[in-house]
Amino acid sequence: MIKFGTDGWRAIISDEFTFANVGKVARAIALYLINHKLNKKPLIIGYDPRFLADKFAEEVSKVMEDAGINVYLTERDTPTPVVAWEVKDKKAAGAVMLTASHNPAEYCGIKFIPDYAGPADEATTSEIQENSNKDLVLPMAAKKGKVERFEPRQRYMKYIESFVDTALIRKAKLKVAYDSMHGAGRGYLDKILQNFGCRVEAIHSQRDVLFGGKNAEPSDENLGELKTMVPELSADVGLANDGDADRFGVVDEKGVFMNANQILSLVFEYLVSEKKYTGSVVRSVATTHLIDRVAARHKIKVHETPVGFKHIAKIMMQEDVIIGGEESGGFSIKGHIPEKDGILADLLIVEMLAKRKMPLSEIWEELIKTTGEVYTKRINLKLEEKEKQEFMKRLRDETPQELAQAKVVKVNKMDGVKMILSDGSWVLARPSGTEPLVRIYAESDKEQKLAVIL
User: Fold this and answer.
1) Which residue has the higher pLDDT, 148 or 404?
2) What keywords is this UniProt entry annotated with (predicted)?
């Protein structure tokens, strides 16, 4: 059965992710466009650098062509945020992105991005999933659709300039180390930074369908080379993106990895203090409460959502939101599309360094002097589907009343089970929507306490 997770359908190539099944999903998307009277507008199709992703994208194009839907198909592997932005730029019906994001190399995936250029909501996903599991025969098109290849890089690069102070960055002449992780971000972030006058040293800048033998996830354990490289080059910062460049990774000038919780808090504070952004802030249930501390200082409303950027995007489309983010590295800001953009996140870090004229480690120290220390950690429990369900049912039914010698004062079952302790620490257990895992998240103001919780 084809089953959509938090962000589209992902499966192992040649096991479940086959040309036949991709064709089924493509026909379901085509039917969605026809039924919702969107088939007269063009559809954007993009793909990441994974094995056969380009060929799967061509398969989707053929289905759309036969259904009478015009297609813009990217010339090369392209970042998801760029494909999403092109929906707005070309006033398209939506986009289909062939990507498994940060999943291991043996996976591929497919996601539908609706006409608002953000993640598909539950109703849209359910409709497409239901029809993906049927033997559909599409209505006969009066005329075949047209497939046109295009390269969106220059237009996106020009557009993204509007969110950063390019003159400030040019004046700073920063040295940046960049790891695209063999992903779609290569030729995007590095070129943008060079255009802004930065001295860029890039690694892993070639397509590799195995991503160098690592997950294309910009995590602490996967960015060892970047962490070594930054102090060796005396670079101001190290930046990275995942396989489809919708997530970010940051290494400070000392070669120390900074997690997404830290970066989201820093950029949020910077947007409010220096760029004078107004509005609310949105974070997922698994994201740091340091954001709440920054928000409290500035009297800003905080929204908490289930995990999955589609929930954050929904609020971003309803009201003025300064920043929406999640601990896995998903991020967007006011005025941009309601979709994760790791390229923009990295650019705002560079602007912040240029503006503050301080090393990143010192900017972080300045923040926690005002908010207090915070330590976060995530671990993964590998469990098959049945084991995942049993584990979560037991936790929901028998939620502990005490943990790490502290009382559980609040239980949040919005997404998984989140236990908030009397000292402000918290722990969350939730099943992954894309992998055979239960993720355990925890946060405390003391590192020793965090170790006890986990």
Assistant:
1) 148
2) Isomerase, Magnesium, Metal-binding, Phosphoprotein
